[in-house]
Design a protein that fits this description.
Blueprint: H1 21-39, H2 43-65, H3 79-92, H4 102-119, E1 121-125, H5 127-138, H6 150-153, E2 159-170, E3 176-190, E4 197-208, H7 216-227, E5 235-244, H8 254-274, E6 293-294, H9 300-313, E7 317-319, E8 323-324, E9 344-350, H10 357-361, E10 366-368, E11 372-374, E12 377-383, E13 388-394, E14 397-399, E15 414-416
Parallel strand pairs: 1-2, 1-9, 2-6
Antiparallel strand pairs: 2-3, 3-4, 4-5, 7-9, 8-9, 10-15, 11-14, 12-13
Helix pairs in contact: 1-4, 2-3, 2-4, 2-8, 5-9
Length: 417
């Protein structure tokens, strides 16, 4: 949880040039290295993250004070505050006791981000594959994300994914974030009870400092930070999210998942009301043609990353061979002695579909004229070795010819030839 969002007016997107893997790889390395140099010890970043953390925890505690948690008999004093910390810092992998000062929490977050940037394998994603992930993410419900099995679904344990262009997200307060990159690390989540520890994934979102939305207040902050000798990093930390990775809901029924999704929405609606004091009108989109993502339930990050990991694991996307970006040097070892990753970049593209058995035989087959995302769904899978059926989850995935236009819905048109 916790987006350090900014309300920024959008400007036109740069339409010059076309995306190429080589240029994307060079840009990704440059962004990572410049962000590493600007992030460590940056007082401006720490101040922004601390302010955001204070808002998130205070508003969450306020909601919990008016929830069933407040009605518990003989509840310990300060339980709501500890619960708020566990739902933020604990889910991010911070081992209790949790800090009471937002600046201390922000300093810890910056250290984790520095470790991520040093160790992450860098990935860039083609515009077509990114569009497929966006479409698949739109089909997911909040509870679907908790079916994540990190050991099965995530092929790269520590990664930094740089998008082909920023995604403009409208947050619960109406402010805009232009997300340019996602980073992730395997962690252990900690909740209130000492025994409540779960395998998880910490996801960090990064805004584009020079991205498509630039309000006067943000431009002033960028100028002041640069003048002070501590310029803001080009990948500006936006928020940190904890995702559970032990497939805790994988065996639940569709009805239970739907009920949990509704509970998630109700909590997010309550948090939106609690944050109403800092709400602001959503700026007009203006000339930028990429559109924006409404995120009133604060779950876009989880849905995008879940769809991305599942599409890679299922072979819907292809991970290209590692190729060093020309003239790129890796950063020095970090203060914790961790070794930086090598300068190779993985390129994520849409994979060409495998030919169907009927193709080779010349049999009549269906011809689709579109691609479309298929939602997550349960199937009864037969396991010959066990001589039994087991219920498993499939999806999200993209169906249809690789060169066909992508539809955001689940309807597709076909003809028989």
């Amino acid at each position: 949880m916790g987006k350090a969002s900014r309300a920024k007016r959008e400007r036109s997107r740069d339409k010059a040039g076309q995306w190429t893997a080589a240029s994307a790889a060079r840009a990704a390395h440059r962004l990572r290295e410049e962000t590493q140099r600007c992030l460590a010890g940056n007082p401006w970043v720490q101040m922004m993250l601390a302010s955001n953390m204070n808002n998130v925890i205070t508003e969450l505690r306020g909601v919990l004070l008016h929830s069933d948690l407040a009605d518990m008999a003989a509840r310990p004093e300060g339980l709501e505050w500890d619960a708020a910390l566990s739902m933020t810092l604990g889910k991010q992998g911070y081992r209790p006791p949790w800090p009471r000062e937002p600046r201390e929490a922000a300093a810890w977050e910056i250290r984790q981000m520095g470790k991520l940037l040093r160790q992450a394998e860098v990935l860039v994603i083609s515009p077509a594959a990114h569009a497929a992930v966006m479409a698949a993410a739109a089909t997911l419900e909040p509870a679907d994300v908790s079916t994540l099995d990190r050991d099965r679904d995530i092929l790269v344990p520590t990664g930094l994914l740089v998008l082909p262009e920023p995604v403009v997200v409208v947050n619960r307060t109406g402010s805009l974030s232009d997300t340019k990159a996602f980073g992730w690390q395997f962690i252990t989540q900690h909740q209130i009870l000492p025994s409540a520890q779960y395998p998880g994934v910490r996801v960090t979102t990064f805004m584009d400092r020079d991205g498509p939305v630039q309000p006067p207040g943000w431009q002033q902050a960028v100028s002041q930070a640069r003048a002070s000798g501590s310029p803001l990093p080009p990948l500006m930390p936006d928020g940190m999210y904890g995702m559970r990775g032990d497939a805790c809901l994988a065996e639940e029924s569709s009805e239970v998942l739907a009920d949990l999704s509704e509970h998630h929405r109700q909590l997010q609606k309550a948090l939106t009301q609690a944050s109403g004091w800092r709400s602001e009108p959503v700026p007009e989109i203006g000339e930028w043609g990429g559109g924006h993502v409404e995120d009133p339930y604060d779950d876009f990050v989880g849905r995008y990353m879940f769809a991305f990991w599942r599409l890679i694991a299922q072979g819907v996307t292809a991970v290209g061979p590692s190729q060093a970006a020309p003239g790129v040097r890796t950063a020095a070892n970090g203060p914790d002695g961790s070794e930086p990753r090598d300068p190779d970049v993985r390129v994520i593209r849409l994979a060409a579909p495998s030919p169907r058995p009927s193709d080779a035989a010349g049999e009549t087959k269906r011809v689709y004229h579109h691609r479309w995302p298929v939602r997550m769904h349960k199937v009864r899978q037969w396991y010959p070795s066990r001589q039994e059926h087991r219920v498993i989850w499939r999806g999200p995935y993209i169906k249809g010819p690789a060169d066909a236009p992508l539809m955001t819905g689940e309807k597709a048109y076909l003809v028989d030839s």
